[in-house]
Design brief:
This protein is an alpha+beta fold and 216 residues long. It contains six helices and five strands. The termini are far apart.
């Protein structure tokens, strides 16, 4: 009896398809936003949907298109916008194409009135979810771009380490970033590895002096 209940639920085309789509998108969201546990839920949904696919006998062309679409979403998200959304668009088209193949393989197994309902419901679900995840992918790209363009600007009084000798110009490391630097007159040369105090920023240069000079 329990086995029949399981088959009735997970061999249902609607349930199988929804689990498949949710599994793909939860897994993708988990990969792009680690730490939230979405990938676990996605893996569970995918596993259950694959069981349903095997039972129903779905054409695996649809599964291949879903996988390719998911891969394209991942590549686009990891590119930080360098691909200009081309792969995200390709991912949307592959997911929609996979949905069409999925529905076509079910058509011979269903009654005519069920076919119309299924196509309208599941294809609408596919397109909506594809567009939603495409938007999420673009948001991830925008976030990565914003982080990559947020440049640290050293403040007056902060310290740095001379990466090269300053005679009077050279390079200084401040909070892990390398800056061109110029030592004020009367305090150079500053030797490599010496701690310096940042006095101000002039264009692309840090104006510095030896750290001990502030105490002398």
């Amino acid at each position: 009896m329990l086995e029949n209940f399981f088959l009735d639920i997970f061999a249902n085309p609607f349930v199988c398809y929804i689990l498949l789509m949710l599994g793909i998108y939860l897994l993708l969201f988990g990969i792009n936003s680690p730490g939230m546990g979405m990938e676990v839920g996605g893996a569970i949904c995918l596993g259950l949907s694959i069981v349903g696919v095997v039972i129903i006998g779905i054409d695996f062309t649809s599964i291949i298109l879903f996988v390719v679409g998911a891969a394209l979403f991942i590549v686009e998200a990891q590119s930080e916008g360098n691909l200009h959304g081309i792969f995200a668009l390709g991912g949307i088209l592959c997911i929609i194409g996979g949905g069409i193949f999925f529905l076509q393989s079910l058509t011979p197994l269903m009654e005519p009135y069920e076919i119309t309902i299924m196509w309208v419901t599941l294809l609408t679900f596919t397109i909506t979810l594809s567009l939603v995840f495409g938007g999420i992918t673009l948001k991830v790209i925008e976030s990565k771009r914003r982080k990559s363009t947020e440049t640290f600007i050293p403040k007056e009084g902060e310290s740095g380490i001379a990466k090269t000798d300053l005679k009077p110009e050279g390079q200084v490391v401040a909070r892990g970033e390398i800056w061109s630097a110029r030592c004020v007159d009367g305090y150079w040369p500053v030797v490599e590895g010496e701690k310096v105090k940042i006095l101000k920023v002039e264009g692309v240069y840090l104006i510095v002096q030896p750290w001990d000079a502030q105490q002398s």
